Amino acid sequence: MNNSERLHWSFDYNYGAQKPQFTEQLVETFLRFYAEPKTDRISAETTEHIYDIFPNYWRGYAIGEHRQDNLSLGQTIIKRQQTDDAHWHYAIEYTNRTSGEDLQLRFHTANDLYRSLAGKWYVHAQNDCQDSYSTFACEGERVADEIRLTLNHAEITVGCIQKDVPFTCNWALFDVIPAFSRTIQGSGEVVEMVLLEDLEKLRPVNRIGFLESIQLHETQLDGYYLYGEGLLPSYWWLDMHGNVAISANFFQTLVLREIVGGSA
Q1: Residues with Cβ < 8 Å from 222, sequence gap 6 or more?
Q2: Which sequence spans correspond to the domains of the chain?
Q3: What separation in angstroms does the CA of 248 have from each of 55, 59, 119, 186, 255?
Q4: pLDDT (tens digit, 0 to 9) for every residue of the chain, 264 residues total?
Q5: Count of CB atoms within 10 A of residue 50's CB?
Q6: In angstroms, how far is CA 142 from the centroid of its own chain?
């Protein structure tokens, strides 16, 4: 496959005379990481994954030096650290240079396949508009079967879930999907769970299933889908070491650019 060939439909957002080209820049980022095979890429044991953010629908809204030759809107950093035998700590940094959005999420999970949310979680978002609405912060926790958020000193219940239903955050799926990948692919069955999207919006019915396997520039990728109630479909492509190489939803596509750190 060369840069002019079509990508898989789940992340093919190249249109006509679009400049810069989506395919060209996605493949360039992909090859920058995968051109020289490494033997130490193990998703669940690494500290940090860094992704370039590509817009699926380009309308020339990048600013400054990013307008002409760089399609990337910014980056997403997914940090995880195993705090003890039973828990993981996640720190998510989502930075969009074109909108000025800076989203930071902090949460703990159990050390299980679902990375079930545990304890309190924290959300902080800001943008460059410089007014009273330029920042947002909240914290949340699960109390019995209720999901509660606290913002501006007011507590609200955003939904309820059953006690024994798996419950995690969409940003933990970068570890959840690899953990279930062999089971899903081998059995042909789906894995169900409740998601708290961006630690704010409860999505009660979600299913992860196997899509297909492809070759992208001689790198094998296994594809998985996530479909959910009130959730935009997304598609997740794993390399042979269990890293999410490409994650695409309706609006944007994340492409793995770098892995930092060793064993957590």
Answers
A1: 181, 185, 210, 213, 237, 238
A2: 9-260
A3: 10, 18, 29, 23, 9
A4: 445 567 999 999 987 656 778 899 999 999 999 987 664 545 445 589 999 999 998 765 555 555 557 889 999 999 999 988 899 999 999 999 887 889 999 999 999 999 999 999 999 999 877 777 788 899 999 999 999 999 988 999 999 998 889 999 999 999 999 999 999 999 999 999 999 999 999 999 999 999 999 999 989 999 999 999 999 999 999 999 999 999 999 999 999 999 998 643
A5: 17
A6: 22
Name residues whose C-beta falls within 8 Å of residue 68's C-beta, 6 or more positions apart in sequence.
20
Peptide bond into 166 cis (omega under 30): no
CA distance 255 to 73: 12
Q: Parallel, antiparallel, or unpaired: how do β-strands 191-197 and 167-169 relate?
A: parallel
Evaluate whether 57 touches 80 at the Cβ level (below 8 Å): no
pTM of this structure:
0.90
- Strand, coil or helix: 129: coil
